[in-house]
Structure formats: structure tokens, C-alpha cells
Amino acid sequence: QVQLVESGGGLVQAGGSLRLSCTASGIIFSPAAMGWYRQAPGKQRELVARITGGGRTNYVDSVKDRFTISRDNAKNTVYLQMNSLRPEDTAVYYCNAAGRVTVVSPQREYWGQGIQVTVSS
Question: β-strand 115-120 against 10-13: which pairing, if any?
């Protein structure tokens, strides 16, 4: 019953910005670690950014000074603010959650459907 719903993707010019949103339902959100992954054509899926339930973040080096991950626990939503976008950021971006559906459930990972981000030269 876990659902991750992504929004905010689309087409943007190089140097522009986008903000991705992922709203989760069916999980205990506040302690869950949330992440954004991406997969470009011909490349393997990579972790872009991650934020723990305690607010610790990490980023892949290529986005470290351009992207910011954040969360709003009151809205069960995680965001990825993407600035100074480059054509090499073009990919399908996937929301990921690591959490529990109840306090007595094992922790598992869940995935969104993916959303396209295209950066034009």
C-alpha cells in the first residue's frame, strides 16, 4: 500500500532550475530515509541525494553544489531543488523510501514510478 507520487519534472534550458517533489503515503514517514536516484540512457541508476529521518544529507559529487534535498514531514514530502542544470543531468529521476509500514514491520525500500527531467543545450 506504499505509494510514492512524484511531480515537478519536465524540460528546462541549461542553467535553469527545477524542483522535484515526492509525496509518500502508507509508510511511517518521519523516521524514513528518503532519496532521489536517476538513470540516464545507457547508464546505471545512481544515487543523487539522500536525507535521513534525522536530517542528514548526502549527494553524488556531480550535484553537490547545485542540488538540495529537503523534507517536510508534515506533508510527507521530500523535495529535490535542482539549480544550474546541465544537459548531463538529463535522466529519469526516481523517488526512494526506506521505512516501515507499521512500527512492528521490517524496514523495506520502495520506489516511485520515475519522472523525466530533460535539460536542453
Answer: parallel
